[in-house]
Amino acid sequence: MVxxxxxxxxxxxxxxxxEALTADGSTSMNQIAQRxxxxxxxxxxNFPTREALVLAVYQDEVARITGAVPDLLDRMPxxxxxxxxxxxxVEAMRRKHGLGDALGPGAHQAISEQxxxxxxxxxTALLDAGQQDxxxxxxxxxxxxxxxxxxxxxxxxxxxxxxxxxxxLILDGLRAQSQH
Length: 180
Description:
- The chain has 180 residues and is mostly helical.
- The protein folds into two domains: 1-48, Homeodomain-like (Arc Repressor Mutant, subunit A); 50-179, Tetracycline Repressor, domain 2.
- It is built from nine helices and no strands.
- The chain has helices at residues 4-23, 29-36, 40-46, 50-67, 69-75, 78-99, 105-133, 142-155, 163-174.
- The protein is elongated.
């Protein structure tokens, strides 16, 4: 069983690493340890390599995003939940892009493979809820939706963030015919 102080240290390290690496992909492990308020030994005990730390930051982010679906569906209609969830996903993809400098190609592949299943499951839950209440068309496919969202984070790279308008178009395309 992991002691509570060890869990808190790990959580502080992940938070500090996410913030630091998003701002500057070349932040050192020692700078991250300082920012988290832990010694280098504690950092390396939890994350023996820089790549292990960055992978853990990604995994933590994917778990947070995919874990938000039930709460969103409790609080709002499926299409609105999908809008909020996708906006959060796009923000995470933008951060991931900023963190990407810290990883090699093998790690990028590992992240994609590890996150694909949980992300598809989250999208499936959102689409299923909308299909059940009749707001989302029956032929909506979570893989298609995920591929379309890939264009959203790239749309933010221009001076004017076009992602919200593009997301509105995607969501309009998902509406069941009676919803138009």
